[in-house]
Write a structure and sequence with these properties.
Blueprint: H1 9-37, H2 41-72, H3 76-106, H4 115-141, H5 146-173, H6 180-215
Length: 216
């Protein structure tokens, strides 16, 4: 793979592994959401535990990448960009862990009428984040592909926004939930799930700037 790091196969491998961990955590979040809605408590708990392990692995690898960056990356500006990118990407897996942990702690009851839309929302927000990971891989190797993946980030983020609005409207206006506190609780989780795509979009904007700097 062509890389902004050039001399460090070790560094490339670590960053690729870091991106793989984030990708796997997103897949597990999607599974955890489905298991939760299906009331498959055993599978949900197992998936939550797997996400927690991945989040810990990501934190360790993030620290390792920072150290390795200082060893192999000679250009301070490029190094700072990659450090910022890695830190921002770690927020994605932190969000996945927080959502599943909060589901386990708060145990919100989502009306069955909303289950399919919640699954679709989770899928769209994860596809946005997955597109960010592809954009990041391109940034590290094939800069000319970054913009096409950024476009996909924005597309799926917009889809997630539409679904978030529909679900939020249903929660507060369709008499599916009576208690205001419960409405606010459900809306909190919908906002957290959609927030992953918002995070992906923000990181994508940062990545666009980093890419322009590399191309100049």
């Amino acid at each position: 793979m062509k890389s902004v790091f050039r001399k460090s196969i070790e560094l490339n491998k670590k960053i690729e592994k870091f991106l793989d961990i984030i990708s796997n955590s997103l897949l597990l979040l999607e599974k955890a959401t489905k298991f939760y809605l299906q009331e498959d408590h055993t599978s949900f708990d197992e998936t939550l535990n797997r996400i927690v392990v991945l989040e810990s692995d990501a934190d360790e690898l993030e620290t390792d990448i920072k150290i390795t960056l200082y060893k192999y990356m000679l250009l301070p500006d490029a190094r700072a960009d990659v450090l910022s990118l890695i830190k921002s990407l770690d927020n994605i897996i932190d969000d996945a862990e927080q959502i599943t942990k909060e589901l386990n702690i708060q145990k919100p009851v989502f009306p069955k009428e909303l289950h399919q839309q919640i699954i679709e929302l989770t899928s769209s927000t994860i596809q946005s984040a997955d597109s960010l990971l592809l954009a990041t891989r391109s940034f590290l190797g094939e800069l000319h592909l970054v913009s096409s993946y950024i476009s996909k980030i924005n597309f799926f983020e917009h889809e997630a926004d539409i679904l978030q609005d529909k679900i939020g409207y249903a929660i507060f206006n369709d008499n599916l939930v009576i208690d205001l506190a419960e409405k606010l609780q459900l809306n909190y989780f919908i906002t957290k799930i959609a927030g992953i795509s918002d995070e992906a979009e923000q990181i994508g904007e940062k990545l666009t700037i980093f890419t322009i700097k590399r191309e100049i």
